[in-house]
Amino acid sequence: MLLPGLALGAPAQGKDKVVFKVAMLGEGVDSLNPFLGFQAPSYEMWGLTYDYLVGYSMKDMSPEPDLATKWSTSPDGLTWTFTVRSGVKFSDGVPLTAKDVAFTFNRVLAKDSVEGTNWLSYLTGVKSVTAPDATTVVLKLDKPVATLPLLPIPIVPEHIWKNVSESQMKSYPAAPTGGKPVVGSGPFRLVQGSADGSTFKFEANPDYWGGAPHIDEVIFQFYKNDDSAIQAVIKGEADFVEGINALEVKKLQSQPGITAQNGNSPGFDEIAFNAGSTSDSKGTKKIGNPNPAVLDPKFRHALGYALNLPQLITKVYQGAGLPGTTIVPPNYTAYHWEPPADQKMTFDLSKAGQLLDAAGYKKGSDGKRTLPDGKPIGTLRLAARSDSPTSLNTMDYFKTWLGDLGIDSQVSTYSSSQLTNVIYKGNFDAFQWGWYVEPDPDSMLSYLTCAQRQHSSDSFYCNPAYDKLYNEQHVNTDHASRVNQIKQMQEILYRDSPYLVTAYSAIGEAVRSDRFHCLVTQPNPGGIWLEQYGVYNYIHMKPASDTSACDAAPGLTGAVKTSAPADSSSKTGPFLIGVGALVVVALVGGGIVMMRRRTTVEDRE
Amino acid sequence: MSLVAEPGLVAEGEQPEARSRGRSYGSYVVVKVLGSIGSLLFMLLVNFFLFRVLPGNAAQTLGRGRLNTPAQVAAFNKAYGLDKSVPQQFLIFLKSTAHGDLGLSVKYRLPVSQLIMDRLWPTLLLVGLSTILSTLIGVYLGIRGAWSRGSVFDKISTSSSLTLYAMPEWWLGLMLIAGLGVGFAFVPGIFPTGGLHSPDVNPSSLHGVLDTTWHLVLPVATLTLAYLAEYSLIMRSSLLDELGEDYLQTARAKGLRDVVVRNRHAVRNALLPTTTVIALNIGFVVSGAITVETVFSIPGLGLLSTEAIGVPDFAVLQGTFLVASAGVIAANLVANLIYGWLDPRVRT
Known about the structure:
heterodimer; A: alpha+beta; twelve-stranded mixed β-sheet; four-stranded antiparallel β-sheet; 17 helices; 20 strands; 29% helix; disordered N terminus; B: mainly alpha
């Protein structure tokens, strides 16, 4: 996919620098140190700065050569051998070898290390990592691991990081200091920015092994509100905006020179139930006060027929998104299980009513449904997140639909951190939230295992049959049979319904296509332009002035095309206005001095 | 963000043997300084326990979808001292604070003191400039309004400053962005929509200073307009109180010009309450202006604290509240000292 020699190199000297300015929304960068940060924008920063052993395809995020040109596994699945690309250099000129890869992984594997907090789960079962020569990395495993070769850990230069002790690591900034860029081997170099800051500046790495990028700089500017970021794109202060909603995408689509879209992201939103809150992962003690009804899989499953998902997508998501089914989004075509027509929960209140009747939740004389033992269900407590309008609206609709079935409910709103507290105490019946799912669904599947109760599980779902399949697929290196197990797990979850997946969400994006073209979505087609798995577009996008054909991208379609330019704003304005503002301040100050002077003059008269 | 209190009322509890009449200014200063230090220490302790009631836990809120296994959660909590009990954390907090160390932000993994220093400058520029401008303009409007009470000027300035005061700051800011940042009809958008300066300029060069000024016009205008009424109304009403006084008659009888009577005699006497408000509000400059910082995407202290609440990032909250309370306490102390110096009656 990356053909060296195809790149045209940086524009000739004397021309203006080509700067790609991205307006970012939402959470900022939490750490530039790849061992520490958690937030999505941090991954984008590392992706530009560092390289990875294994990359992701643009088509469907399947593993693809990156630093590793090829890999093989022993027949017993306990030894993985990676061949590392030679001739790769860090930005300070030191060659990147297999030793740097082994060094990075061994820091993650060190017991109780802070490096392990972010990455340890990707090396589960790995006993040792060695580099027998400059181009070979060998992973020895205790037991086979199905998620390999997926290894999304940024490779850091050993000669720099070996000087960072374990105690320094927990606050090591890995930020540019004294004008020196952060040392990495990636396609760009971070020259300005710090974790809590709002501006990050990258310069292209002309010596990048995959060919120099076609742009000279990337600048990320973090905005704290949508309106300002959108105005910045309309005015041309920014070339790209990421994370806007569907209405804003619509607005930007009508602007000249801008191409906007809702890209399908590999995430889902769900209504989750309290499937049995317990004090620990073993289920020693029941805690919280879930309604007996939501503990019953039959009750939860029946409610799945009361959700009018197409209406939810139209009204709540403004059409940007797809009705949801299972916890593995359809973006991951290989792993997604789509319920067959006879099992699929479609909006049908009478069917929902029949299922509830059959499960014993019959209507009483007052028209309200009762528990199988005849006692009233009472009021279900639905929790929504105050920071998400989607969450609130979804739960309001859910309340209406429950009402149609003869079930009372009440929506309460919490901030995300408050809701986390409520969930871990088990004081809820249902809440709305969502997850992003990685290219390998293993970690997402693990969140619904018994062992994750009081850890990553937020529904307290526990089903031994599901756990058994989870443990089997985790060590199953036969792809076809593993896919089969993963699909069975989705089927179990669909039937037991600890989650009712409401939507596969979309991310709104807009690009100044009068300035940049050749951006390609991931997955292709239908996906997103930035915050992808990998940094393809930063390397392959071209300024509009470069009218040569886009880089060859076999099998990929729908690259952004240049559009007619909009009126560009004046560049001299800022300085004149800055001068003007200083003059105003001077006049106000001067006026006050004058007033005082005048009084003394008058006084003397 | 205003706090109107008579100096002398604040920190009144700390005046043990202040009963002797005609106490010297020196001992007054000592008592006030000691009282301020006491308040600050008290705030330090309150800060620690206050934020411990916040919901949430950093490993769960930050590590959602990242800290996938119990081992990862344990390593995270151990590295940042979150595995220790609250009394242990309190002892560590006392020890490190005594050494001038404000701790490590669990979200940004950087020293809190560094985060605060990064954010202090934007906040000082934004809120400091706005406070100065609104004081100057507000006091001027108040004087003119009171002196010619009921005039067209008075009616317009009072009603418009009250209207601006009643507007939510973020809404005013968004209106300014929509009007002057983006432009409408034939009005061009001449100001940037957010940020403290353009990403590719060096803020310490002349170019950078002009660029920063250009970026600050709208946010400073928003805050100045919003704060205006606070000063103009107090100035206006205290000047109105003076209008009927005999000494003004005397001054006029001496044949002084109206302007001199106003500025030399009336305003001097009416300035005291305004001075109090200004002194106290200056103390609040370092707490930032959360809504305006959000609307204009200015990375100030206000945003730092609000974002820390959701984690919760205890060290950052303790640090920013320490700075904010130190600001208010220091401004109070200064106001008290000036008052004691100006007016010996408050020393008792």
